[in-house]
Amino acid sequence: MQGAMEDFLRALRAADVKVSPVEAIDAHLTVAMVGFADRELFKDALCATLAKTADEVDRFDETFETFFARETFQMEPPPQGADGEPEAMPPEVAGSELAQMLLNGDVSALAQAMEAAAERAQVSSIRLSTQRSRLTRKMLEEMGLAEIEQIIAAAKKLEDARSQALVGRLEAGKKALTEEAQRYVDRQHELYASESGKNLREELLARKALNAEGGIDPQDLAMMQALVKKMAKRLADRYSRRRNRARRGHLDVRRTLRRSMAYGGLPFEIVWKTQKVEKPNIVAICDVSKSVAAAAQFLLTFLYSLNEVVDRMEAFAFSGRMISVNDLLDDNKVETAILEVLKKIGFQQTDYGKSLEDFCEQHLDQIDRHTTVIFLGDARSNYADPRIDLFATIQKRCRAMIWLNPEPESYWGQGDSVMHRYERFCHVAKPCNTLAQLERIIEDVLRTYVPH
Q1: What is the total count of domains within the chain?
Q2: At what angle do helices 293-304 and 334-345 cross, to 10 degrees?
Q3: I need a labelling partner for 372 at 20 to 30 A (CA). Which of 61, 181, 414, 430 fits?
């Protein structure tokens, strides 16, 4: 049963239930204590050991029921003789255990044979839906399907009634066996490959252009919003670990020895060298015109999901004029807040110069030497004055100025784009048109606040 437990733990991990090596050991000890006789006790004990949140409990229940589901084979009972006993086994099937099980309708033996064949065929290694047909056939071959097909082919050459009856029974059994094998492989795919498919889909969405022509499909949009939060959590966890390591520091030998003098040289008080680690102060200024609104939504979702590691987060949006959107983001979900912002200032003619004037007049005091400014926009100001002087003023006051442009770098400076003029005052200016690019850039921002 240990092999089955290992497979079950792997299925849980595929269902996004975190199972550490220590928890796996605890699960085995739990099973050794409660046993397998009582299904509900067995399930509840494992759930209490492995599931840590309400969501994980739901995923555990679903995975448990799928993994330990054993559907009864739908096999026709063997025909009865005149005396009420099952008919004698035809001599043609004497060398095939599978044929004998099919003709006898031995569902228990068939289920055990299928489990063993699945293990030999490594069905649990399935990762893609396209593997289902191949693994089904491989599992059936491991059970001895080739022998069944040979017996059927040989019996078809004979024209007597007994041979034709044997062909009919074996073909019916083969059909039922194939259907059950397909269901079995489908369950394995659901257990082990559903998460692989999801991960593949997330990889594709992470590289999807945010300003794609025709917009983003609503279903993809929902998945991308969830992916952004997942990326942010991953970065927050990584950054928190680095801060904790920096907080612990290293042993300060001199001060430790100095304090030990009061205890006869025994180091009762250990002194550590520590480094002060600042949390990032971020000011996000986002163009929410039609061509950039999607990228702005994901950037704000990303930054507001980093609330555990960001000391202060201020957000501003502009199209023709600039406004603070902190209150909207605090009171609503980001996607709802973006819609409210668009109602207020969206779909106006973009004017970077006027927006910078609004910011400097009303919000310049939000920026100091500890602030990182993240500016998101395509720098297309419809040939209006871009007010480079005001942008330079903001750059002088902040710790770092980062510009994220949804357009390819080859488009910068073409038409009404003044990106090349703003770029001179940026510490970092990069194209940012996918979630993967966004994640890398935000990670670079967090890294600058961590001592190495």
Answers
A1: 3
A2: 140
A3: 414
In this structure, are 60 and 95 located in the same domain?
A: no
- Tokens 């110069």 sit on residue: 353
Three-state SS annotation for 215-273: CCCHHHHHHHHHHHHHHHHHHHHHHHHHHHHHHHCEECHHHHHHHHHHHCCCCCCCCEE
Token pair of 364 as six digits = 């310049």
Instruction: Let me know if residue 238 belongs to a domain.
Output: no
pLDDT averages per 10-residue partition of the chain, 452 residues? 77 82 90 86 90 87 81 60 52 76 80 85 79 88 86 79 80 86 83 66 75 66 76 73 57 85 82 68 85 77 74 84 83 74 74 92 90 89 90 92 90 90 91 85 74 44
Paired sense of beta strands 400-405 and 428-431, if any: parallel
DSSP state of 375: E
Q: What is the DSSP string of 42-110?
A: HHHHHHHHH--SHHHHHHHHHHHHHHT--PPP--PPPPB-TTSSBPPPPGGGTT-HHHHHHHHT-HHHH
Buried/exposed 408-440: b ≥16 CB within 10 Å, e otherwise: eeebbeeeebbbeebbebbebbebbbbbbbbbe
Classify 70 in phi/psi space as left (phi over 0), alpha (psi -120 to 50) or beta: beta
Q: Which tokens hold the place of 318? A: 């502009």
- 96-109, pLDDT tens digit by residue? 888 888 887 777 88
- Domain residues for the domain of 47 are 2-67
Question: What is the residue whose two structure tokens read 């498919």?
Answer: 197
Within a domain: 257: no
